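To: structure subgroup
Subject: Chain for Friday's discussion

All,

I'm putting the inputs and outputs inline so they're searchable in the archive.
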Amino acid sequence: VVSTQSTGSSGINAEYGSRETSFPQWEKGLKWIHGSKGGYHSLSDVDVITQRGVLKDIGYTNHNYYKNPWKFQACKFKGKMYIKKFDEEEQNWDAWCLKNSYWGKKFEELIMEQESGTKATYNMLKGKIGNRNCLLSAEVDAVTIEGKHMEVKTCFANKLTSKIPLAWLQSHLGKVDVLYYGLKDKQGKISSKPTEISMDQVAGRYVKAYEANAMIGFLGDVIDWMYTALPDADETWVLEYKKGARQISLKCNKEKFLPSWYLQFIEGTKEDDLVRQVEALTLTHPIG
């Protein structure tokens, strides 16, 4: 089973509602690497740099009843494999997905307004998945002033049991302590007190050991396969699972993958323009 450990006070933190910056979501992880104490050399034991949402979708593939498709971009450069979401992901959502996303975020806002001092956070976590050491960025919905990490969800009350395995995988990868559910009635309204479920209660009760190990095991197999298959070059490969398919495809589109400022950083360039561009994204350390 994957083990993840927080990078402690060097994590990425962002105020809720301040998600729009001049840097794409993906580049926040690269920014953390740039600003970490050891810089690029701090990745000496890291094979894969990615996002938690990427790993969640890959790991859940065989357990997804609806066989929902997913598609990510990947690259291996100087021995490090990078995997990220498409920047325009939400633009392809249908009206139903956009509506649920909107109300889900509104529910998050309501919860944090009621809990003084609570804020969303971006953490950087390091752990082994399959045979590869991974560094992943994970957005956590809420962190209380006591330091408890919470994942805030909404779902229809009669579908809670079927929804929890995916929430467990997402939360396990992000070192979340508590799942906080707003249960919707048939009309989609939340009229009862939210349900709080400790992650310690999820394993065994909602998610069987064989399910958990199967999801993590499959994720590890895909990561190992990708790392072996990708050539070491700054070119974009598309990793894709199509709805109901029996295989995952990996195709090259020959486009450049890594941002120019990060490539310059890797090569040790210290131009003033590069510094100004990187410092344009201001991030603070997490609560602790």
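Points worth raising on Friday:
Confidence is low (pLDDT under 50) at residues 1-22, 269-288.
The two ends are 27 Å apart (CA to CA).

D.
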